[in-house]
Amino acid sequence: MTEYKGIRWAYDRYEVIADSIVNGIGVVFALIGATVLIFYATVWSSYGAIAAAWIYGVGLVLTLGMSFTYNLWPVSRTKWFLRRFDHSFIYVLIAATYTPFLERGAEDPLLFAMLIAVWVFAAFGIVLKCLFPGRYDRLAILLYLAMGWSGVIVAKPVSMHIPSASMLLIVIGGVIYSLGVIFHVWEKLRFQNAIWHGFVIAAAAVHYSAVLTCFSLSPEGF
Prior knowledge:
Layout: E1 2-4, E2 7-9, H1 13-44, H2 47-72, H3 77-104, H4 109-131, H5 137-149, H6 155-159, H7 164-185, H8 192-216
Helix pairs in contact: 1-2, 1-8, 2-3, 3-4, 7-8
GO molecular function, one term: metal ion binding
Binding site for Zn(2+): 197
Membrane topology: Multi-pass membrane protein
């Protein structure tokens, strides 16, 4: 077990390799998926939707890329520095995932306010992680979950602007993320980090499908 500034990294060589493979797969598919989504949006969608596709695609790639970099990096002062960004980008991914769906109904004051709110919340989380690294980690997990599930507040109006398939995929992805948290906090379990990131990538893939469906189908489902 290696410790730096009170943070413990209790992963052996095989756990690090497994985690690197999982994260590496996620980054590759994120790059491919983001490219496809942005191309599709550029050809078929409005300027607002194109911007939303870019925000989501870049947020997805940067978040998984930072996770790969941070978790592969050896324990050092640099790893401690990268930890701030790794945790901060979770807020970015949550807000970026909201963006394509809320953009579809941005003319609705409630949905527009929600779009602004999730990014303000993300900015607050980033500041919290950057200014107080290594502190309030348990609180941060609750904030991630609260931010992720706050979408239920606007579920009804959002459902009027996106396909029902996207709504279902959003919920499924949220459940997968939430179940993954069990392994994230189960620090004594071997390969815990790789399993957690497996849940993250699976959930991200489901949400990507929801976004792509949102761009591909009308709210009526065709």
